[in-house]
Amino acid sequence: MLVPQNDLKLIICLLRQLCRMCVSRCLQCVGVSLLPLAIVCMLSNILLLLPELSVHFLLEGHVTREATWATGLWGSGCVVLFTACRLIQSSRTTGCCAFRTQMLFQVVYSCVCLLVSGFCCLVSATGLSQGPLCLFHTTSGPTWGVPLQPVPNRHAGYLYNRTMWTGVCLEPRGVVQWNAVLFSVMGGASGLQTVLCGVSILNTALGLILGRGFGHNKRNQNLSEPNRGCDLE
């Protein structure tokens, strides 16, 4: 049975309005979700720079290279935090033209956020797999280096050999567990940020096409007339 033309137009119109209402809510949900993840990345990177909670290793240059890049601070931290605030603010924008303008900016912000959070995730994975910079014994005496990194034809790295977690690094104390936990946390948080930023790109692109949301633009509309503005003629 063929659907009457007027009913078909009504269904299409209602579907478009439903999508519009979802845009603003999704913006707010993504923004709120990104905020704690950004804080987690910043705290993790700060702690990675302070083994034994002491600043002298950082001042002496004895901190793992990937931690000194501070991608959790400027990338998955500040950039994502700024983007999250902008997403939340954009979800409250009124007016069709103003909202679409905000969506255009948010597409750019979300793309940048996607790149920096992905880069932070990659750096975290590299730092985790290579192992920490620490003081360890060699034939010529104690020296600073990365003794736990994978060596071809010898071992696949410390992640696959828990016996290497203790007894290899002399200083900082407990740096292997410290780096493993914090790089894992920062990598996981930045990975979630990457996924959320991908969702944000799709959502803001949809918002750019459809506008803000029927429910928000018609806040004072009588509930008995939910289909006003759907031309069925």
Can you offer a commentary on this structure?
It is a single chain. The protein has 233 residues and is mainly alpha-helical. The chain contains 7 helices and 3 strands. It has helices at residues 5-48, 56-59, 65-68, 71-90, 96-130, 175-210, 214-217; strands at 134-136, 143-145, 169-171. Strand 1 and strand 2 form a beta hairpin. It is elongated and about 85 Å long. The two termini are 22 Å apart.
Low-confidence stretches: 213-233
Give the helices and strands as they follow along the chain: HHHHHEEEHH
Number of strands: 3
Radius of gyration: 25 Å
**SS-based structural class?**
mainly alpha
Spatial sequence of strands, sheet with the most strands: 2-1-3
Mean pLDDT: 82
Q: What fraction, in percent, of the residue positions are helical?
A: 55-70%
What's the total helix number? 7
Shape: elongated
Q: Tell me what portion of residues adopts beta-strand conformation.
A: under 5%
Q: What distance lies between the first and last C-alpha atoms, to the nearest angstrom?
A: 22 Å
The major sheet is characterized as: 3 strands, antiparallel
In short:
The chain has 233 residues and is mainly alpha-helical. It contains seven helices and three strands; from the N terminus they run H-H-H-H-H-E-E-E-H-H.
